[in-house]
Amino acid sequence: MKILLLEDDPEIGEWVRDGLSRAGHVVDWLENGRDALVRATTQSYDLLVLDRMTPGLDGLSVLRALRAAKNGVPVLLLTALGDVDDRVEGLHAGADDYLRKPFAFSELDARVAALGRRHAEVAGAPKTSLTAGDIQLDLLRQRCQRQGRPVNLNPKEFRLLETFVRSNGRVLTRTMLLEKVWDMNFDPTSSVVETHVSRLRAKIEKPFGDTVIRTRRGAGYVFEPTS
Amino acid sequence: MSAVRQAVTITLAFLLIVLVAGAIVIAAFERETRRRIEDELHSRFAEVRDDIERLGYDPARYPEAKNERIEFRPGDSDIRSGIHNAPKFRWAFWDRGTTPPETDAPLDDLEHWMYFAGPVRGGQLIVATDLRRQDDFLQIMLKTMGLVGLGAALSALCLGVYLGARTQRRINAISQALSDFGAGDLSARVGGSPRHDDLGDLSRQLDTTLDQLDALIRQSRNFAGNIAHDLKTPLSRLRIRLDRALMAIEDGGDSAHAIEAAIAQAERITAIFDAFLRIAKLETGTARASFAPVDLGHLVDEIFETYRHVIEASGRTLALDKDMPETVSGDRVLLAQAMANLLENAIRHTPGHTHISLVAHGAAIGVADTGPGIPRDAFERVTQPLYRLERSRTSDGSGLGLALVKTIANLHGADLVFSENPQLPTKKGLYVHIEMSQ
């Protein structure tokens, strides 16, 4: 992917650029918001990673300007610690995702991958069913079948599985799952995600004697359906 | 002593005004009396002239009086009828029947008289009146006015100095209190003044403000001290783990574990800062702008669904206790976080097999448990940032969970209430709840 990075802190900027480059992306790194806006409007990028507070023009203003000009490029917003309303504000301004500093690189990596895929998917009519390997999800009736046998899931478990199926083999971090499934923008210290994932696995894997959800240590979970 | 200087200035100005006013009054008075004397003199002259012309001049009829002289000089008269200067009429002050010496020897008395002279049949007549009467009167008036003016000025000066000094003292007290406070004495207050004047009101207002500042400063001092204190442990652990990682690398061993442990400590430090910043931001109250109706029944359902299995996996149980939950105006995410914090506290600080309930009664939501509870006198303290009961010092968590819950409660215009679990007959356990209004 071709990624434009706006980050004024040299150490963080270098770290993100190197990490994303190593993950196979082409990264243009700018430190000034005004330059970033010019670059984003004159060149084509697959993803913009914008720091919220930058000199010249802050990341949020860059995002607003782009959206006002009907530029739909996916944007991941990076914000500072303790900004309670930033997520809401950022998403409202048209950001596709949001990440709070400081973050683990694996978190950024997973989100960048997810955003790139989202962009590639052409928005069509909303799907009423999802299929991944031998797993079928009926989104209207919230029913799940595996190998033709019904699997009884509660609403949170269904939503969790749906998120996994949609992830298309990409890493989902604990925080991403909390946001997508529980709509929590805070980090519980207890094992909310772990507990629900292990319950889901007990229902979707155990009766079939295989593994579809793998734990990626220090990163999160990966859904790998068997066909 | 600017107030005294002010009083003196005002008094001097007052004196000047009195002097000018006095001079004007005296000048006017002098003019007026002179005019009257002239009138009187004129009519007296006319009266005497008529007498003389009718009956002839008889000196016996006009004896020497203290204030009046009337003299007749037979012969031709060349003077005009009217007020004249004194020296012309020296003869009028000489013994009758003798002729005054034709010298210019001073004759003091002459100066003090006013003369009305004019021709009458067979000679000239002069009527004079002593002006000293008027001068005396003027003198008395001057003296009186001077005394009154001086007295008034002195009184004004004294009063001014007194009032000025008093005001100065009160202003000094205010400025002293402010500078003491500024220098770090947080107990400095203006104090005193029960008077209901401008300065009294100002003093009271200042004292109230100083009280608030005092509280704020103490709070933030505590806060800063607590942050520093609570960061000590994770920071030294971070240091130790990085040291271990370094040693592992030097020994050619596996450093990944030590580095992961160091990252975990860094995350804990981040969590502490994050919670502090969130509390600080929430305390500004700006989040209230995004309040929307929140169905508390629905909210606890979701929390229940999220935490039930987590709590069961820990060996405890979670029950839902709903009684006519209401819809309130609030921030759903923050209220969910508050409930999550309370549940996580319940997990962290109770033994296994504890029964935990998620409560939604009317506009109140909270968490009750059958654990050991906390001492009543700790009910207030546990919501202070970083406060922990001694037995839980070592457990995980940022130490800001309850402080954040309290901040969220306050944001919703509610208080965080602690009590024993009312569902337990033994009056033990703990029930923490937020009681909101609709």
Structure description:
The complex is a heterodimer of chains A (227) and B (438). With 227 residues, chain A is an alpha/beta fold. Chain A has 2 domains: 2-120, Response regulator (Rossmann fold, 3-Layer(aba) Sandwich), CATH 3.40.50; 129-223, Arc Repressor Mutant, subunit A. Chain A is 40% helix and 22% strand. Chain A has helices spanning 10-22, 33-42, 59-68, 86-92, 105-120, 155-167, 174-182, 192-204, and strands spanning 2-6, 26-30, 47-51, 75-79, 97-100, 129-132, 135-138, 143-146, 149-151, 171-172, 213-216, 220-223. In chain A, the strands form 3 sheets. In chain A, strands 2-1-3-4-5 form a 5-stranded parallel sheet, sandwiched between helices. A 4-stranded antiparallel sheet of chain A has the order 6-7-8-9, with helices on one face. A 3-stranded antiparallel sheet of chain A has the order 10-12-11. In chain A, strand 8 and strand 9 (149-151) form a beta hairpin. The longest helix of chain A is centred in the middle third of the chain and has 16 residues, at 105-120. Chain A is elongated, with a radius of gyration of 19 Å. Chain B is an alpha+beta fold and 438 residues long. Chain B folds into 3 domains: 2-135, no CATH class; 198-283, Helix Hairpins, CATH 1.10.287.130; 286-435, Histidine kinase-like ATPase, C-terminal domain (Heat Shock Protein 90). Chain B has helices at residues 2-55, 132-182, 198-250, 256-283, 296-313, 332-349, 401-411; strands at residues 68-74, 82-84, 113-120, 123-130, 292-295, 317-323, 327-330, 355-361, 364-369, 416-419, 430-435. In chain B, the strands form 3 sheets. Chain B has a 5-stranded mixed sheet. Chain B has a 4-stranded antiparallel sheet with strand order 1-4-3-2. In chain B, strands 5-7 form a two-stranded antiparallel ribbon. In chain B, a hairpin with a 2-residue loop joins strand 8 and strand 9 (364-369). Chain B is rod-shaped and about 155 Å long.
